[in-house]
User: Which sequence fits this backbone?
């Protein structure tokens, strides 16, 4: 199986005209478009101090955003699960993101946005009144791994020190800021000589990797975890392709032993 050299392909895409101040990217904070270096979050915003937020990420390639409507829909659902309200409509959100890409002149982009609980406007922590805030930024596309490593395959470590935060604590289907289980598992992997990590739940079943859903092929069957993971848009695309190509797919519990 050949691997598409996406990094090389993207490097050959000519950037669109843009102001020099947006060379490193663009941001939308405090209801204003800014160069990314000027994008700021108030230090007392609950998203900053308590990770109290929902977010999403979509990529653009060759000027096309990947399943934008699906990402917007998932973001709306994530906000609802955390009791957050986006101050912008779905159409306004999409317009802001498109404008950010245009300002940065990027055909291949990493597009991030979030709604935070915001700053405490009045009351104490018991009767807290917050005004939810919207933030977004766009930078040149970022790869988890480059062409060389993806071609040869990354050395992966199944974390033994850290478990995926259980869904009873934080719903993994709502894209959230609670990344310490995943970040620490990556550090564990790197310290052991591996290049990325995979997390299990407390019952020893596979969940996901940092920034990635997990798939494996065993006995001709494509398998992916049914729980403890984000309902990824790329994951859904794999589902769609499996159906189109008539590949047998199982969304199921996967004991860690099946991967090793």
Assistant:
């Amino acid at each position: 199986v050949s691997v598409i050299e996406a990094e090389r392909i993207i490097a050959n895409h000519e950037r669109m005209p843009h102001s020099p101040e947006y060379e490193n990217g663009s941001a939308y904070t405090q209801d204003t478009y800014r160069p990314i270096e000027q994008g700021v979050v108030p230090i007392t915003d609950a998203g900053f101090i308590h990770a109290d937020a929902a977010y999403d990420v979509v990529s653009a390639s060759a000027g096309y955003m990947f399943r934008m409507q699906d990402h917007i829909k998932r973001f709306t659902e994530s906000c609802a699960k955390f009791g957050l309200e986006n101050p912008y409509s779905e159409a306004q959100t999409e317009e802001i993101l498109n404008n950010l890409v245009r300002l940065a002149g990027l055909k291949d982009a990493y597009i991030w946005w979030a709604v935070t609980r915001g700053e405490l406007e009045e009351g104490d922590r018991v009767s807290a009144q917050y005004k939810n805030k919207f933030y977004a930024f766009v930078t040149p596309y970022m790869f988890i791994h480059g062409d060389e490593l993806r071609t040869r395959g990354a050395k992966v470590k199944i974390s033994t020190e850290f478990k995926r935060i259980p869904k009873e604590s934080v719903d993994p289907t709502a894209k959230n800021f609670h990344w310490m289980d995943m970040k620490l598992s990556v550090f564990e992997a790197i310290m052991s000589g591996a290049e990325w990590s995979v997390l299990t739940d407390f019952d020893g079943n596979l969940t996901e990797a940092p920034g990635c859903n997990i798939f494996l092929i065993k006995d001709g069957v494509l398998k992916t975890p049914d729980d403890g993971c984000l309902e990824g848009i790329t994951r859904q695309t794999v589902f769609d392709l499996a159906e189109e190509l008539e590949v047998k797919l199982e969304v199921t519990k996967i004991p860690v032993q099946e991967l090793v």
